[in-house]
Design brief:
mainly alpha; 2 strands
């Protein structure tokens, strides 16, 4: 993704911003789950006699998170520069 935004190595913020670290962690978890699909010794039968593999479920969850994160990453996330404005946190009562 760094190449996608044409960002040089020296322009990357140190320490890495949260979104980039999170993307890297989710990608690592996704590849680990992908490698482990089919090796679940505790595989069970679900509804309609479908086999349930916990690693396949994890892979799907990590893939969904990975696509959501990769779609929201910008060049500013790599450099750590603020785009402007201030964050707004809406508080509510429950």
């Amino acid at each position: 993704m760094q190449a996608k935004f044409a960002i040089a190595d020296e322009d990357i913020a140190d320490p890495l911003p949260y979104n980039i670290r999170r993307l890297a962690i989710v990608y690592a978890c996704y590849t680990a789950a992908l490698d482990a699909v089919g090796t679940d010794a505790t595989e069970t039968m679900g509804e309609n006699r479908q086999r349930i593999d916990i690693y396949e479920q994890k892979r799907k969850a990590y893939y969904a998170e990975l696509t959501a994160l990769s779609g929201s990453i910008t060049a500013a996330d790599f450099t750590g520069t603020a785009v402007g404005g201030s964050p707004k946190v809406t508080l509510g009562r429950s």
